């Protein structure tokens, strides 16, 4: 059977798409900082355009926006410092006491079910002292050794920390001409449909970003107030960190919960800290999933919980930690494409017979 011209054209487009996907997959480690910078540039370029519209020179506008973005990321990371500076010294003294408390409460409970468990408190104390006394020196030694042999993990991380802001700066500086140059590669007969598709993607992503920012701020306020009412001394840094880290799906919430649980175990005697964290974070998850996200982000994106989990796993497997960050916005774009493919399929002769 001889393929029709439309079929041959479809095959050529599929071949081009498969080639591009193969190149992206092969060069994923190299492309990762560029992908991150491109996503950030897309999110930040409206701010640059707003400053330019107020007659601020573009170079100065880009510099201000990039510096503010870096300051925001640095501020989020610095929230962990007061938490760790207070908790690490307490851990050294409290881990043996925690083990002893577990022996007193958990051992009799498990014994009722025929499970005999007895923690070695002396051994745990010795291990804690060894870890916290020698961990810093060992960590520095390992880091220096890695750097001497070209230790790529550290050097790659430092390289990306420099490369992402630099690429972001040049993308924002040349955003509109770059978008126009890419647009010229689209055949003229497809440009109208491509522009409509990109406009729909831009609308979906804009709603996602605005809604996600509102969710983060609302949750930061909730966790801070709730932990403060529960009597946590570290309510402010833990609450703000948890709320803002929600932009990393599941991982941000989990890290915030671990920090809060650690603070509760170290500050309170008994099970009040654990119970308070379970209640506050359980209610926070319900609030986020059933109230804030549906109302503030809306159902426009249309990703089901299963689709979200699959997207996070798939992008995390392909691009690592960065893949988790870009999974949902990229999935939203793919969903727009799938909607159009569905409409085309339902109107095709293949479906109609």
From TrEMBL:
Main localization of the protein described in the UniProt heading: membrane
Localization per record: Membrane
PANTHER family cross-referenced by the UniProt entry: AI-2 TRANSPORT PROTEIN TQSA, TRANSMEMBRANE PROTEIN
Membrane topology note: Multi-pass membrane protein
Keywords for this protein: Membrane, Transmembrane, Transmembrane helix
Family: Belongs to the autoinducer-2 exporter (AI-2E) (TC 2.A.86) family.
Protein name, UniProt field: AI-2E family transporter
Source taxon at top rank: Bacteria
Lineage, top ranks: Bacteria, Pseudomonadati, Pseudomonadota, Betaproteobacteria, Burkholderiales
Sequence intervals crossing the membrane: 12-28, 65-84, 149-173, 213-232, 238-262, 269-287, 307-338
Alphabetized Pfam families for the sequence: AI-2E_transport
